[in-house]
Amino acid sequence: MNTSVTIAGIEFKNPVTTASGTFGSGMEYSEYVDLSKLGAVTTKGVSSVPWPGNPTPRVAETYGGMLNAIGLQNPGVDVFIKRDIPFLRKYDTKIIVNVVGKTTEEYCEVVERLSDCDVDLLEINISCPNVKEGGIAFGQDPKCVEAITHELKKRAKQPIIMKLSPNVTDITETAKAAQAGGADALSLINTLTGMKIDIHRRSFLLANRTGGLSGPAVKPIAVRMVYQVANAVKLPIIGMGGIANAEDALEFIMAGASMIAVGTANFVNPTATTQIVEGIEAYMKKYQVEDINELIGCVK
Amino acid sequence: MSVALKKEAVVCENLRIATDIYSMWIKEPEMASTAKPGQFISMYCSDGSRLLPRPISICEINKKQGALRLVYRIAGKGTEEFSMLQASDRITVMGPLGNGFTLEGKKALLIGGGIGIPPMLELAKQLSCEKQIVLGYRDVTFLDKEFETYGSVYISTEDGSKGTKGNVLDAIRTNGLHADIIYACGPTPMLKGIKGYAAEQGIKAQLSLEERMACGIGACLGCVCKSKEVDHHSNVNNKRICKDGPVFYAEEVEL
Ligand SMILES: Cc1cc2nc3c(=O)[nH]c(=O)nc-3n(C[C@H](O)[C@H](O)[C@H](O)COP(=O)(O)OP(=O)(O)OC[C@H]3O[C@@H](n4cnc5c(N)ncnc54)[C@H](O)[C@@H]3O)c2cc1C
Ligand SMILES: Cc1cc2nc3c(=O)[nH]c(=O)nc-3n(C[C@H](O)[C@H](O)[C@H](O)COP(=O)(O)O)c2cc1C
Ligand code: FES
Hints:
The complex is a heterodimer. By secondary structure, chain A is an alpha/beta fold. In chain A, about 30% of the residues lie in helices and about 20% in strands. Chain B has six helices and 16 strands. Chain B has helices at about 30-35, 75-85, 120-125, 145, 170-175, 190-200, and strands at about 5-20, 20-25, 40-45, 55, 60, 65-75, 90-95, 105-115, 130-135, 150-155, 165, 180-185, 205-210, 225, 240, 245-250. In chain B, helix 3 links the parallel strand 8 (about 105-115) and strand 9 (about 130-135). Flavin mononucleotide binds near residues 19 and 72 of chain A.
């Protein structure tokens, strides 16, 4: 039975990774999960200098999901390189580093710094709804997506995954733009912009007013977008958005994702990732699937 | 520190002890064996529409029986669900989480405000020094009788129906209390006042803070508070309440 998948020439022992920002750099969850059992660990977004993030409250629960407005708090690329990469390299798993910036120059700076580092792929977050500059502003305009992809592609030694925003009318347009810019793969979806109002205090619940919606509530939208993009571009896709168990993961794979990422589900079940790996294997045994690649995009 | 566990615990009893306030004992021997005063656990709802666990402080630890006590207020749908649990029901919990109080000092002031009172009970039990316990309520009191076993209890109520009329600092001043260490848990404005009082008196204060949480274990960065020093985790001035706290020395954090 083969569970390994290949993205941009890099082989992953199985199609399960973590969704950026929900797993840190794996340190906290390594007490619950053997990271070597995962196809890859995708880290929290890293910027050129430390970012303090947004004021609190930063998280709020919603029906079957949550809103977050963390604002990409992170220690900056230097601390990340010194501390987090050596930590993750102790495990037999691939490392995907999520990159953030406020300007094209800042994205380029981080990518250049990481180019010489021992990491396997770079995932470019051009879709964070919680920071004003950069983030989502890049991710919504196909011209910007193509331009920034092109710039980063010139500088990166590792394959580049562009992480797309669902906060657009037609996600296939940004997907095609990323492909035209030279992206090696796509991640989707990032969170959907949402809002919650505290009716008792008559105020916004999040200090940032709006936040990104994630969790089971977004899953049908994410599956639809993965399907649309898989049929519009040739690039491999890492699918995410509300995946909580192996059944959810298989939906994404059948819709066209080569890999899947587990996000909010980690907060509910710290061992969700490895349970999904096992659940996919159990499904393959049950239906006598020899190779997971047979399932990728099998629903047309 | 030992790894926090996620487990199904058995509810031993779940009693209403005041309007909207419940006291629950759950049996989970492994958690009970490592738990410390000031730590908390994450309690999961069984309704899948409520995804995130609810952080609730440990009120009492019974290592012999392998049980933990939680005292909580119905604040919304999740705690309402907990209030309906009955003996022998099961509930999924994760913990113990957070750092807990550091036991120190010769003469301590333990200050609890509102639903910040429960975690002071196990602390009062475990602290062997001289203890003065100040409890602040809006109106109806709870747990106050139980504290009397462990030290002298002073009460403040906002409506003046019991003890000193006003807040916990009014009770401290009215009763002329002094100490070399303060332990406190309660609403942020109260903690702010205590931080100022401790600075004015030149004594140490350990404050237990609260913030909305998602992961509860330090990964999501949802629950931070402003810290004076650059934190070791993100290299900015933010400490994670769930992992680096919930207990901080007053001078470590900005409120
Ligand atoms: C470290 C810590 C210890 C706590 N200890 C206790 C305790 O011992 N007893 C007690 O009664 N309460 C305690 N609380 C507050 C308790 O977590 C909330 O009252 C509870 O989560 C509300 O859940 P709900 O579903 O009833 O309310 P809802 O408003 O329906 O909850 C919706 C979401 O908001 C979150 N939330 C709502 N209010 C708070 C709050 N005040 N703090 C953090 N998250 C909140 C919930 O966890 C949930 O994710 C503690 C909070 C923290 C952070
Ligand atoms: C608390 C939190 C923090 C996040 N931080 C990042 C981030 O730093 N970079 C990023 O690209 N996406 C970030 N995301 C988005 C997730 O990676 C993922 O795209 C999204 O949550 C959908 O998946 P899910 O429903 O499984 O969580 C974050 C999501 C959450 C909930
Ligand atoms: S709740 Fe996730 S870091 Fe504290």
